[in-house]
Design a protein that fits this description.
Shape: globular
Helix content: 25-40%
Low-confidence stretches: 149-159
CATH topology of the largest domain: TIM Barrel
Mean pLDDT: 92
Distance between the termini: 77 Å
Radius of gyration: 24 Å
């Protein structure tokens, strides 16, 4: 989003015009910014053989997947349906890494049948995998390094109490299973969480993986996950991916020399690629003042963007309809029957009923975590690419909420109660 002549634009298109054309609430994504972020990350690691596997869970719309596929990205998925969306979007199975958590072994079998790269994060699943496939199907192993890193504890995944990965302390057990079943391990993986600023965290993780790698002679890649920090507020410090690229690439090349051959370095960014490119456009329904607070009530809520409520995440908000108005302090609230504040005590240009507000950094874990809570429909999605807007998901309707319901015409609760009522003599 950029501001010119006191108006807000996305990729050259006036945001207010998009809101009027497609209606609100509305997710709008800047496709060129997504492509630029991908290429910036790719260039930062140009000294090594790097593969970027986009973490689909951040934003799964097939148009976004197709865009990243066109740039050369692979895919990281955590469910079979994410994999199916990837295949529909042009990815081939070999480009998709399947890294589920707490799923049944039948999902692993289905993923193998689909031809996906399998990443195992559980001792019992590894044993099942070895018993069924032995060395006929390659896999990678996700390790938990017991490193506490990142932002909110709900998205920190590498600490000792995390459900993710196999503990690094269980390495002897892993090696026994691999040897017993002759499992073909071609990759090692770690991901410690989100919002990681320091290159030292990645380097520490790398040291652990390099040490473990010596016990696996047939590796093809090492996957360092992701967690790159993006800017939410003006002046936010972000991960310097170019500095990280220099330091990680040097360490990786040294390791490969010692390992005896060159391996691929993998990363799985999600938020880094799509967060800043996404905006949730909402309309001010009401201005409500109380003795303590001036509320702006908007036509959206935690059913469309849950991050402020679930993670206490900050999302910058701007009034795109009145950018020259006098600044006042508001609490921007949703229309859900919960306390679903998007922002508390925020300075905004004066908001009037009917004004459009833009909630920034909504590209990652926005629509993908949206729901029909309060029986409300999910919003439309629009992709702006090369100066042209594309409706990539229509707005839901009430009929969409009914699509999975069974026909209840023959269900009569009153009749069932009467049928059970005892007959008086």
């Amino acid at each position: 989003m950029e501001k010119r002549d006191n108006k807000y634009y996305i990729n050259g298109l006036l945001i207010e015009d998009l809101a009027k054309e497609y209606g609100t609430p509305l997710y709008v994504y800047d496709g060129n910014q997504i492509a630029d972020k991908y290429n910036a990350l790719k260039n930062a690691f140009s000294e090594v053989s790097v593969k970027i596997k986009y973490a689909a869970k951040a934003l799964t719309n097939p148009a976004i997947l197709k865009l990243l596929k066109s740039q050369g990205a692979g895919l990281d998925v955590v469910s079979l349906n994410e994999a199916r969306l990837g295949l529909m979007s042009g990815f081939v199975p070999e480009e998709i890494l399947f890294t589920p958590s707490c799923v049944g072994f039948e999902e692993i079998v289905e993923a193998v049948d689909m031809g996906l790269n399998i990443n195992i994060d559980n001792i019992s699943i590894l044993e099942h995998f070895g018993n069924k496939y032995h060395n006929s199907v390659p896999c990678s192993i996700r390790l938990n390094p017991h490193i506490m890193a990142g932002g909110n504890t709900k998205i920190s995944t590498g600490h000792i109490d995390s459900k993710f990965g196999i503990s690094i302390y269980q390495l002897p057990h892993i090696l026994r299973i691999v040897k017993t079943y002759d499992i073909q391990v071609v990759g090692l993986h770690m991901h410690t969480g989100s919002d990681i600023l320091e290159a030292d965290v990645f380097l520490k993780m790398a040291d652990i993986l390099f040490g473990v790698s010596r016990d696996f002679p047939n590796l093809k890649f090492i996957d360092f996950g992701s967690g790159f920090k993006v800017a939410y507020k003006e002046g936010d410090i972000t991960t310097n991916v170019y500095d990280l690229g220099i330091k990680m690439s040097a360490a990786f090349k040294t390791f490969c020399s010692e390992y005896g051959r060159d391996l691929e370095m993998w990363f799985e960014p999600g938020k880094y690629l799509v967060s800043e490119a996404g905006h949730l456009i909402v309309k001010a329904n009401i201005i409500k003042t109380t003795p303590a607070t001036a509320f702006v009530g908007v036509n959206s809520g935690l059913n469309h963007l849950i991050r402020p409520m679930m993670y206490d995440a900050y999302h910058h908000i701007v009034n795109i309809s009145n950018p020259g108005g006098v600044q006042r302090v508001y609490t921007v609230s949703g229309y859900i029957c919960e306390t679903d504040n998007f922002g508390v005590d925020r300075k905004l240009n004066e908001v009037r009923e009917g004004d459009f507000l833009a909630i920034k950094n909504a590209g990652a874990y926005g629509f993908s975590m949206a729901s029909n809570y309060n029986s409300r429909e999910r919003p439309a999605e629009v992709l702006v690419y090369n100066g042209k807007s594309h409706l990539i998901r229509r707005r839901e309707t009430f009929d969409d909420l009914l699509n999975t319901l069974n026909d209840l015409d023959d269900f009569n609760p009153k009749a069932e109660v009467l049928a059970k009522k005892p007959i008086k003599e």
